């Protein structure tokens, strides 16, 4: 259960990072 929880948290984190990266790219262009 702990491993699944960690995987879920890292997945959520990567999604947030991806969204931030996309918005930054839009602002830069």
From TrEMBL:
GO CC terms: host cell membrane
The protein, known as: Pathogenicity island 1 effector protein SopD
């Amino acid at each position: 259960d702990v491993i699944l929880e960690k995987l879920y948290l890292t997945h959520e984190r990567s999604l947030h990072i991806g969204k931030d990266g996309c918005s930054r790219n839009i602002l830069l262009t």
